[in-house]
Amino acid sequence: MVKIYYVRHGHAEHNKLFEELGVDAYKDPRVTDSTLTSIGLEQTRLLSKECSSISPFTVIIVSPLSRCLETAEQIITGLSYKPRVIALDEMIEWSATHTPNHRKDKSLLSNRFPSIDFNHIESIRNIPLSDSIQDLEQRINAFKSFVKSFDDNDRILVVGHTSWLNQLLFSDVKIKDLHHARIYESANDNQFVVKD
Q1: Region of residue 181 (left: phi > 0; alpha: psi -120 to 50; beta: else)
Q2: 119 and 89 Cβ atoms separated by less than 8 Å
Q3: How far apart are CA 183 and CA 153, in angstroms?
Q4: What mean pLDDT, rounded, does the chain reach?
Q5: CA–CA distance from 169 to each of 4, 87, 131, 141 (Å)?
Q6: Average pLDDT for residues 123-137, to the nearest whole number?
Q7: 8 vs 20: CA distance, rounded Å
Q8: How, if at all, do strands 191-194 and 59-62 pair?
Q9: Residue 12: which residues within 8 A CB-CB, separation 6 or more?
Q10: Rounded mean pLDDT of 92-108?
Q11: What CATH number does the domain containing 166 carry?
Q12: What's the sign of the alpha-carbon dihedral 128, 125, 61, 74?
């Protein structure tokens, strides 16, 4: 059976702006495809050390938004081995209409993150006019189908976003306020625990 661990990206610029502006931060063009803050970079450095103490991951599947890509990049920098790292558009955060969730073009991402496989994302991702829970569910179902393609012995780390992870694991985008840059694992279909 495939073993999957989950991580929310490190603290990002839109999280910082949210502390000042509240929900208006999600429409602010200054945080388009939000990147990690200095706090987030430190969180991911610590996360990298924690990941190196876990049995090796064979694959890291990551959202193609910069904050998740930077988190994955920090993780693999601290590992003594190099797992395959794959970006998927299906992991874009909900709501994809918010400015922090507008990703860069594939060519820019490929140049910035050369160790990540971008073959599974569109060259240019058009910003949707709306993003319903049903749209999010479609992305999550596509993600689940993708994961089924892996071998039963694979150990996968998923680097994503709070709402996306909550919908994936609990069918509720707001059920938990997940901590930044923490490893979680699913104990069963109804539990989501911090890895000790």
Answers
A1: left
A2: no
A3: 20
A4: 93
A5: 12, 19, 19, 12
A6: 96
A7: 21
A8: unpaired
A9: 31, 34, 35, 36, 37, 40, 67, 100
A10: 97
A11: 3.40.50.1240
A12: negative
Q: Which two tokens stand for residue 129?
A: 């006019």
Order across the sheet with 3-8: list the strands. Answer: 84-87, 59-62, 155-160, 3-8, 183-188, 191-194
Going from the C-alpha of 2 to that of each of 100, 149, 152, 157, the distances in angstroms are: 31, 10, 5, 11
d(C-alpha 87, C-alpha 119), whole Å: 8
Residue-range definition of the domain harbouring residue 141: 3-194
How many Å is the Cα radius of gyration of the chain?
15
Model-level pTM greater than 0.70? yes
> Residue 187 has what pLDDT?
55
What's the total number of domains in the chain?
A: 1
Specify the residue for token string 């918010």. Answer: 98
